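Project outcomes to date are best conveyed with an example. Our students and postdoctoral researchers have been running inverse folding experiments weekly, and each run begins with a structure described purely in tokens. The record below, which covers 149 residues, was selected by the lab manager from last quarter's runs and is presented without edits.
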């Protein structure tokens, strides 16, 4: 093989879907359903921090579904990393929800032990988070998963 060739080994074979994406899809829908129902029913056990984390899990599962269908994975799992991976895999697809997803990182900065920070949202912010997760679910289902069929 010519070491000066202008391609990578990854170009030799088209990426194949990563198995298990269907599980991530189902888990994402279940997380979002749980958070939506808990919020709608004003369940006291579901604090804003708990709701935030359940919504974030739904978002992560939806992103992983889309990426795995394309045979890709993110470098990490912060919202920034997930959004960047989606931007790379699906240029322009995230334009309507990109900033909202990136803003979710402000509630938990847990990657660096020296700057560890968790701050919960207020309850009035939860509907927007639920909407954001729902819009991502719709995007993945209608635009990205339809490519698989």
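After processing, the design step wrote out the following sequence:
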């Amino acid at each position: 093989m010519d070491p000066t060739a202008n391609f990578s080994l990854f170009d030799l074979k088209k990426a194949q879907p990563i198995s298990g994406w269907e599980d991530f899809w189902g888990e994402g829908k279940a997380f979002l359903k749980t958070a939506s129902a808990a919020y709608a029913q004003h369940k006291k056990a579901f604090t804003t921090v708990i709701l935030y984390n359940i919504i974030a899990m739904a978002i992560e599962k939806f992103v992983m579904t889309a990426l795995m269908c394309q045979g890709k994975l993110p470098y990490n799992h912060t919202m920034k990393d997930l959004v960047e991976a989606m931007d790379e895999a699906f240029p322009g697809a995230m334009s309507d929800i990109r900033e909202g997803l990136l803003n979710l990182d402000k509630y938990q900065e847990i990657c660096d032990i020296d700057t560890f920070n968790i701050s919960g949202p207020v309850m009035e912010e939860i509907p927007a988070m639920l909407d954001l997760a729902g819009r991502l679910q719709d995007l993945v289902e209608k635009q990205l998963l339809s490519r698989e069929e």
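The helical segments are 21-40, 48-69, 79-89, 98-103, 126-144. The chain is about 50% helix and 5% strand. The training component of this project remains on track.
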